[in-house]
Structure formats: C-alpha cells, structure tokens
Design brief:
Elements: H1 7-13, E1 23-26, H2 32-41, E2 49-52, E3 73-80, H3 89-108, E4 113-115, E5 119-122, E6 125-136, E7 141-151, H4 168-172, H5 178-197, H6 202-216, E8 221-229, E9 231-240, E10 246-250, E11 253-257, E12 261-264
Parallel strand pairs: 1-2
Antiparallel strand pairs: 2-3, 3-7, 4-5, 5-6, 6-7, 8-9, 8-12, 9-10, 10-11
C-alpha cells in the first residue's frame, strides 16, 4: 500500500497550531528524536515536528531499539519548550500517552491499554512506544522532545518480537492512513500540552490525567508486575501517587517506581 505524506495538506490541517509551518519530513533518518534534540540545541522553535518514513537507528526507552521499517509506521518527534519545572516532565509524558490513545481511537475505533508510563498495547502486545527526552537547568526545562513510534502497516514481526509486538493492521486487518493518524495525534497532543502548561489549569489538568489513566489502563491497579529499576522486584500495582509515579505493593511494603521498566509478572 502506498501511504505517503502530503506536507501541504498536513500544514493546512494543522492551521492554528504551533506545528503549522514547522513540519520537517525525512524519507529516511537515523533517529527523529536524536535529530530533534540536536536541532533544539541550535534553537529550533517550539512545536517543530520531525517525522520520517524510515528510521535506521530508532530508539526506545532505556537502551532499546525501535524497529522502524520503511513506510510501515508513524515515526515522529515533537520539540516543545514548555514553561515547566524538570520535575513536571512526567506529566507531559503521561499526557502524550493519552494523546496517542485518543488519536488511535478516533481513527481506528481501537481502545488501547496504557502501560505506565506511556507504552500503548492492544491486548498483551505493544504497538506504540513513547520516548521523552529533555535538556533542563535546575529550575526550568530548556526543551523536551516527545518521540512517538506507532506500528501501523506491519503484517508480521521477527520471531523475537512476535509475542511482544503488534500493529494496527494486524489488529484490524486493514491499513490506516498515516497522515490522518498524524493529524489526529498532533491535534490531541496540542490540547493535552496546552492545558497542562497553563499555570492556572495545571492542578485540574494533572487530576484529569490521573483520572483518565485510571479509567483507560489495566496496569495502574491490581496488575501483578515485575519492575526493573537497576534491581528487580515484583508486586501488585496500587495506583499512581500525586506526582504521577506508579506505586507497587510488594511483600516488603509499598514501593514507588520512578523510571523502571514495568512488565507483567506471570
């Protein structure tokens, strides 16, 4: 299936958002996130969107790679310069997961499950990963980049990923236009970030994020998980704390997960 991008139509659809006029498309690139972080250092404006048909060195959280085959997925990184403290970046990351979930449901009617902090799954398999990177001083964020990889057209995965990964095509048996998905995603992301970064709305915005995560994720409460945070531990998820961090009830008491990978513990 030919599923390219029409930059002029994208620009028009995004009129009135910070992304209009700031779209940077690459037929092939090593990593949209790496490039976006480099461009941010050079002063690229808030709202610049870097997206590619293929990544040759796509990155996931931790040291993971993100398979980014040509014309198969949506590989996009959004540069933001929000006026927030570094401690509040997790909220942007959580909001990005909700934004992707909303966009996917809008286009495909699929309701994704959210695995803290922001992996998206259909059933037990992951189809979207989000990588948030930032450059910050002690009291303020200079810039942050939200990298989003969505498996769209893949019909199969290599053996090592077959039990872990899925795509919108595999789940529905049909191809979905990446352009429509990108427009819905950027519009949804803009709404989330706008509310979150307006000082007078920040408290309500965070409460809304916590509430929506509880409603749309099977991972927030009552899920037996294994956490790898340098050391591994197991327990049952017990909700999010007031800062958005995941809490896990272990045999030794309640533990807070700050950055670790969370997996189902069978």
């Amino acid at each position: 299936m030919e599923d390219g991008f029409d930059l002029a139509a994208l620009d028009t659809a995004l009129t009135g958002t910070p992304f209009a006029g700031n779209l940077k498309f690459f037929p092939s690139i090593y990593s949209t996130n790496t490039h976006a972080m480099q461009e941010a250092e050079k002063g690229a404006p808030d709202g610049t969107v870097y997206f590619a048909d293929e990544q040759t060195a796509g990155r996931g959280r931790g040291a993971h790679t993100w398979a980014s085959a040509p014309a198969s997925g949506l590989y996009v990184s959004v540069l933001l310069r929000p006026r927030i403290a570094p401690a509040d970046v997790l909220w942007v990351s959580l909001a990005a997961g909700l934004a992707v979930r909303e966009a996917v449901e809008q286009i495909t009617s699929l309701r994704a499950d959210l695995r803290w902090p922001n992996d998206l799954l259909l059933g037990r398999k992951k189809f979207c990963g989000i990588l948030t990177e930032l450059n910050a001083e002690v009291t303020r964020v200079r810039h942050l980049v939200i990298g989003i990889g969505i498996n769209v057209h893949q019909q199969k995965f290599p053996d090592e990923l077959r039990d872990l990964a899925t795509s919108l095509f595999i789940e529905t048996g049909r191809d979905w236009p990446r352009q429509e998905l990108l427009i819905a995603l950027l519009q949804s992301l803009r709404r989330e970030v706008q509310v979150l970064t307006q000082t007078e709305n920040a408290v309500q915005a965070r409460a809304s994020i916590l509430q929506r995560l509880e409603a749309s994720s099977s991972w927030i409460r009552g899920k037996r998980v294994r956490v790898d945070e340098g050391e591994e531990f197991s327990g049952v998820t017990a909700g999010l704390d007031a800062r958005g961090f995941l809490q896990v009830q272990t045999s030794h008491g309640l533990r807070t997960v700050f950055s670790g990978g969370v997996r189902e513990d069978h």
